[in-house]
Amino acid sequence: MAALQEKPQPPDEEATALQDHSTGSSPNANITKMDLAAFDGTFAPLVRPRAVRLTPWYRSKDYFVGQWTDLSVWKSAAVEFVATTCLVFLSGQITATLEGYGTPQVGGYIGISNIVLVSTFIYATAPASGGHINPMITYSAVLTGLCSVPRGLLYMAGQTLGGALAGGILLGVWGPERATSFQGGGCWYDPSQASPGQIYLNEVFASFVLLFLSFGVGLDPRQAAIFGPRMGPLLVGASLGLVTFATSGIIPGYAGAQMNPARCFAFGIARRDMASRERIG
């Protein structure tokens, strides 16, 4: 296991209060220990480990195999499963509602709704799981040393299964005919308007922009010192809304960058089309 050394920390009333709650040392004897997802890749900065690794993460055996038997990690993965199911379900319903109303500027409304949707879900899940709810976020956190491999694999499995469940629920709610007319809720493009290469390039670079912003405003350990512990989720949601809106009207028949593999997997299930070249994800 990698050696750890405590960071010198300035007094912080909020962090001290949180630590008192999590260790059960609060003056209120009725407060029990809270089960928090404390790892470097969480969107809740006050529960991140207050120690630095003396050994790089890529040389740490514990980073790759050390948490498979940790029950708290499995619980956090279950939270990611439930949260991803709920988020993808609501995302699909928002798209269907906007199309049902015949809204002409769908992209703008989806961009605004993504700010509220993603921010709310991160706030709701960050203490219990870190608030990733997106395999792309988890995968990038693993590659940058912020999330251990066992936690990352369990999270991505939970997110993928959650997306699959949400896709099945949406298909059941809409019925096959409506699910097809809604294109499963998104993650689709018209091949007569754009080539696969164009869509792929937009998806890759838009995803890079989202990751750059998400790390800068949410996952960077220095973020909390600048924006405070509560602004990160809101800024991540704003980043997603911005990128969604910016790419939503560039090509007819293309809803813009999707940036969530679990969501696209769900919508492919909802429209019963997992092999078409027009599908994104």
TrEMBL record:
Membrane topology term reads: Multi-pass membrane protein
Q: What is its main location?
A: membrane
Any one Gene Ontology molecular-function term assigned to this protein's record: channel activity
Instruction: Tell me where the transmembrane regions lie.
Output: 153-174, 199-219, 231-251
Provide GO CC annotations from the record: membrane
Q: Does the keyword Transmembrane apply?
A: yes
List the subcellular locations: Membrane
Q: What is this protein called?
A: Aquaporin-like protein
What is the superkingdom listed in this entry's lineage?
Eukaryota
> Is this entry keyworded Protease?
no
Keywords tagged on the record: Membrane, Transmembrane, Transmembrane helix, Transport
Q: Which InterPro entries match?
A: Aquaporin-like, MIP
In the record, the note on similarity to other proteins reads: Belongs to the MIP/aquaporin (TC 1.A.8) family.
The UniProt annotation puts the region (Disordered) at 1-26
